[in-house]
Specification:
Strand content: 5-15%
Structural class: alpha/beta
Distance between the termini: 10 Å
Radius of gyration: 18 Å
Bound molecules: flavin mononucleotide
Shape: globular
Helix content: 25-40%
Number of strands: 10
Order of helices and strands: HEHEHEHEHEHEHEHEHEEHHHH
CATH topology of the largest domain: TIM Barrel
Oligomer: single chain
CATH architecture of the largest domain: Alpha-Beta Barrel
């Protein structure tokens, strides 16, 4: 048991949050992380192998997954709230279900937003704020608007990349020095050395996504887990201003096109038209679609259970 500002706030054994990942963070994974001493967090589209249309169906699926997680753990877990101006994101519906199901931890991604933060606070929620590109300005604004924790995300991360290009190693102390609330470090943290480095740089805990993609309990397809386990940083390509992917025929073409024309939006659209991360990561089409992982992919060499991964990440916490 580690006692610091994060474990006290999240009521967890370890200062560890499992980062939400679209399609890939379902009830089984989320509950396993909370059982192992971290905070599991639902991302969008949990437990799905195809797109669900309509707000009602979306809410039913989210409610079903939350209830499933409650059967699998007695610990609390969180949910991802994506602030974006698109109805397809279903932010309000996700908040509604989360409040009805009495969840208390909200990983809110996007620029600090008073209305969203106020709603969460009105339901006694804890706000883990993560603007996609952390800056001193948005960190201090998030704190002022009521965020309880701020996530400093570096360019090493998997998923949508910060636009500043600032690496995790410099983002953490910059943000930690600017805030009074606790800071979680995100981006490229795949083993206990990364955890120790994040804490040494001023973070109070870690926010880990990619490492959990290969966990036994993760819904990532088996073939994709194998592709990640043998993947190398030297085989990753930048396919747009905000996406990096393992190289295959499709992503190589996108990367060449992006290097020539710098039109990231066009490439992002063609990825999203194919279903985003769904085909490559959930359905196993790793040879033809996008696999998103952090730059520390060379360190992801064993799968194992969530419990084993958490114990490995946190091994120096128990000393
Ligand atoms: C495959 C994948 C999908 C992601 N999807 C989401 C998402 O839906 N919502 C979100 O807030 N962040 C998403 N992220 C970002 C993570 O929440 C987190 O910031 C990131 O994984 C931390 O860096 P790491 O991957 O180096 O551990 C995703 C990351 C990955 C790798």
């Amino acid at each position: 048991m580690v006692i610091n500002s994060i474990t006290s706030l999240l009521k967890t054994k370890y200062p560890l949050v499992q980062a939400p990942m679209n399609w890939l963070t379902d009830a089984k994974l989320v509950a396993a992380v909370s059982n192992a001493g971290g905070l599991g967090v639902f991302g969008p589209n949990p437990g799905q192998t195809k797109m669900i249309h309509g707000a009602e169906s979306h809410m039913n699926q989210m409610r079903h997954q939350i209830r499933l997680a409650k059967q699998l753990t007695d610990h609390e877990f969180g949910i991802n709230i994506v602030i974006e101006d698109k109805p397809a994101i279903h932010m309000n519906e996700t908040l509604k279900v989360a409040f009805e199901e009495n969840l208390h931890y909200f990983a809110v991604v996007g620029d600090p937003n008073q209305a969203v933060y106020d709603q969460i606070k009105a339901h006694s929620g804890i706000i883990i704020a993560r603007p996609l590109t952390p800056t001193i300005y948005n960190a201090q604004l998030a704190e002022k608007l009521g965020a309880d924790v701020f996530v400093a995300t570096g360019y090493d991360e998997g998923g949508i990349l910060p636009q500043s290009g600032q690496g995790t190693f410099t983002a953490i102390p910059m943000i930690a020095d600017a805030l009074n609330i606790p800071v979680l470090a995100a981006g490229g943290i795949n083993d206990h050395r990364g955890v120790n480095a994040a804490l040494a740089l001023g973070a109070d805990g870690v926010y880990v996504g990619s490492r959990f993609l290969v966990a036994e309990e993760a819904p990532t397809s088996w073939a994709t887990k194998q592709a990640i386990l043998r993947g190398k940083y030297s085989e990753m390509v930048l396919i747009s201003h905000d996406q990096r992917a393992l190289m295959n025929t499709f992503t190589k073409k996108l990367a060449t096109d992006y290097a020539q024309h710098h039109d990231g939006q066009k490439n992002d659209l063609s990825v999203s038209n194919r279903g985003g991360l769904l085909p490559g990561m959930r359905l196993g089409k790793y040879e033809t679609d996008v696999i998103s992982v952090n730059t520390g992919i060379n360190l992801i060499r064993s799968c194992g259970s969530v419990q084993q991964i958490v114990e490995d990440l946190m091994q120096d916490m128990n000393k």
